[in-house]
Amino acid sequence: MVDQLSVDVGGVRLAYQSSGPPDAPPLVLLHALGEDAADWAAVLPALARSRRAYALDLRGHGRSDWPGDYSLELMRADVLRFLDALGLGPVDLIGHSMGGIVAYLLAEDQPQRVSRLVLEDVPLPRPRERTTPTRPDGVLTFDWEMVRAVRRQIDAPDPRWLERLGRITARTLVLAGGPRSHVPQDGLAELARRIPGAEVVTIPVGHLIHHSAPEAFTEAVSAFLEEDVLPADHEA
Fold it and tell me: Least C-beta-crowded within 10 Å: which of 16, 53, 169, 232?
């Protein structure tokens, strides 16, 4: 059963879905630009078997507030306040694309709050050619002003985002979509090199891994989340 809930995080209401055993370790899922919590529907049941899963609508998306003030740093602050509001200790954190940027910003800034980190086809924070997004026709399920603000940051990221990747202490899995993805795959490889101990798994189905190959996605993620951590002084 999936519960549809919401919580106030510093004056912004965040909507979220929650499922899984209430006493299981917490898992937080952050969607891509223009998506919402429902985007995880194909993989959430499998992930929630061994985790208490929380799939958020980030600000400006879905059922969460559209406050008109947007940045990736504000989204990071919202997620941190969400963890505080629900009393969640160290969590496992999954982020896809834009949600992955929010996830690694949180893991850089508050490394003690993230136990394991999964970054699904997430762009490396390096400047790229600026483009002007075109607004889709019809009613949107996200705030177009949010898209404009976030795209500006992704095109010209704060240099500190790259520099601070080495501060991440969470065990990290980088999932790459392979040559069919529009995200440069050499950037994903560099992302993994810069995060201490990160590993890369390529599922060559393009950018939308959890949509295009849900079973392969959940298999890779579940194996990573359940993997035992050997003590530092362990000898094989």
Answer: 232
**For residue 208, what are its two tokens?**
């939308």
What three-state secondary structure class fits 152?
helix
- CA 220 from centroid of its chain's CA atoms: 16
Classify residue 153 as exposed, middle or buried by CB count within 10 Å of its CB (0-12, 13-18, 19+).
Answer: middle
Nearest to 96 by CA among 52, 69, 58: 58
**230 has pLDDT over 50:** no
Q: Cα(191)–Cα(95) distance, rounded to whole angstroms? A: 14
Classified as helix, coil or strand, 185 is: helix
Number of structural domains (the chain) is 1
Query: Is 0.90 topped by the overall pTM?
Result: yes
Range of the domain at 147: 3-226
For 75-114, the DSSP string reads: HHHHHHHHHHHTT--SEEEEEETHHHHHHHHHHHH-GGGE
Per-residue pLDDT tens for 37-67?
999 999 999 999 999 999 999 999 999 999 9
Structural domain contains residue 232:
no
Q: How many CA atoms lie within 13 A of 58 on its CB side?
A: 32
Q: Is residue 233 part of a domain?
A: no
**φ and ψ at residue 30, rounded to 5 degrees:** -120, 125
